[in-house]
């Protein structure tokens, strides 16, 4: 049976909301820390806290990773990930996410992906969010990832180099590259961050699958908005869509014709 995870992004998605949702689903914080320790990086901590957003209780992932002074490039991140003792699957997924993020940021600034300074992105907290997500999916034994349409707010955000229009340009580039479905949202706030967009662009199919549900997790966003600022994930066994043969039987017939 295929284990699938559906990202129900009614209030968008960020890296820490993703980690919070996986922890809420039952990912062990100790196991997550033990795997993250395989990155040869110091200066970060991760904790989890039960909190409320609106009337909904869930898990907030608290990643404590102070701004560092040396800005990393994609090559630095590749070195950190490749030289770790993490599994091949976690390394590949993490690098895929970072690669898409670098491409999207590069396009915003008119640079090549290798020239991009990861101030927003190669900041230590993004490394923990992204590699932590790949680790969480592996520990929860998720085979496939799906996602809902993404709500996009408007307004402005203060970034490292000044003001940027929302959705952030890098976020929009990532969603365009992935052909992601988007829906307008009246909130004048950032609902989908570049890290959140990169995780889905790299790993998700944008549709709601048929699932036999086994669990639900709520990952809390940092801010309290006028609606519950949470990311909901549905965990379940993938069911074949109504009226379709099982894919296994399908292949089976073809081989013997």
Can you tell me about this structure?
This is TIGR00299 family protein. InterPro entries: Ni_insertion (IPR002822). Keywords: Nickel. The chain is α/β, with parallel strands linked by helices and 257 residues long. It is built from eight helices and eleven strands. The strands form four sheets. A five-stranded mixed sheet has the order 9-4-1-11-10. The protein has a two-stranded antiparallel ribbon with strand order 2-3. Strands 5-8 form a two-stranded parallel ribbon. The radius of gyration is 18 Å and the shape is globular.
List keywords for this structure.
TIGR00299 family protein, two-stranded antiparallel sheet, alpha/beta, 37% helix, 11 strands, 257 residues, 5-stranded mixed β-sheet, globular, disordered C terminus, 8 helices
Strand content: 15-25%
- Widest sheet, order of strands: 9-4-1-11-10
What is the typical, i.e. mean, pLDDT?
A: 92
Note the overall shape. globular
Biggest sheet descriptor: 5 strands, mixed
* Total DSSP helices: 8
Structural class: alpha/beta
Organism: Thermosporothrix hazakensis
Keywords: Nickel
InterPro entries: Ni_insertion
Protein name: TIGR00299 family protein
